[in-house]
Amino acid sequence: MDSGRLQGYADLIVNTGINPDPGQDVVITAGFDQLDFVRLVAETCYRRGAGKVWFNWTDMPLEKLHCQYQTEARLGTWEAWEVEKWRWQAEKLPARIWLDSDDPDGMAGSDPEKRARAQMAKFPVIKPFRDAMENRHQWCIAAVPGEAWARKVFPGIAPTEAVERLWEAILAASRADGDAAANWREHNATIRRRADILNRHHFTALRYRAGNGTDFEAGLMAQGVFAGGAETDLAGRVFNPNIPSEEIFTTPRRGVAEGLLVASKPLSYQGSLIEDFSVRFAGGRAVEVRAARNQAVLEKMIVMDEGAAFLGEVALIAEDSPINRSGILFYNTLFDENASCHVALGRGFDMCVRDYARYSQDEIRALGVNDSMIHVDFMIGRDDLEIDGVAPDGGTVPIFRRGNWCF
User: Which residues contact 222 (CB under 8 A, 6 or more apart)?
Assistant: First the structure.
């Protein structure tokens, strides 16, 4: 990949993605397979004025070995120094960058039950730190092409060619070519205009219908708002948490969801690929899941904690989005969720409550924002998807027809 284009992508992640303050520390989480690009991002952070750049290195083959050979008790335990790292982040509030390059099948063959129980044991320890950081720092998830991931997306060709093609696809989806900063200013303005239109309607629910069997309604909070694109933290810093991002989303009202959602794309969840699946809701809760592949992983996901079976997000993305038009199935949620409409099980977003800074965490939950250790998006968009908004007087307003916006 041309070095100038890679520098432009690094500039986009740092300047538009996290937008760090002078002297602010930055934490980069990445795999070993893109060390050169991590160095480029780190240097870009320093040239922007970062105080210190820290690194969290990940490796899925090593994670698989840990799961295979460690006892469940050890796998589910934080060491004291690991807890102190979380405490430091909650106090220091560094900007955070995740560079995702994971193999979609990287944990195949591992024990999902053991992994899930270990994660459930560890989560209560870090939850106070996560809550303390919520809406108080900038973060950005972007992607780089690991070789195993590239071969999954582009099978049957040489690995080096697959990686190069995945680089091209990532940069195109991320609007990273040309004047990337200007591309994102225009893109964010378009998202904001559509979100404003939705917010003026004050919808009480969204209704979904599609030819694959999707027949579903999600209730919305009276204080809820639609958002998308750039976000602003409580310190007033503007950042873009997802590169790419095509969605306009909100947090639905916990406990108000009925019907069937049929997934339109596979879900890559923690190194396992869940395929041909559906989720049935009653009383707001996912009460039944079916999958042609890795149903056990899906079943375990919705019992990770008390909130895992409830919705945390509904997101609207047109079928004619650039990612969907590319015809590429990325096997990666960051990209596939931005190809078409999706929902998420698990944790909701405080910032989808109007004037959220006025409320305590308990008050946010009382308003209807779900809490959970997970937030897992899965795709439901199709070219025949219809979505209606339910107005306060009970009437309906068409939002999507044939998979695309009505306005």
Answer: 202, 204
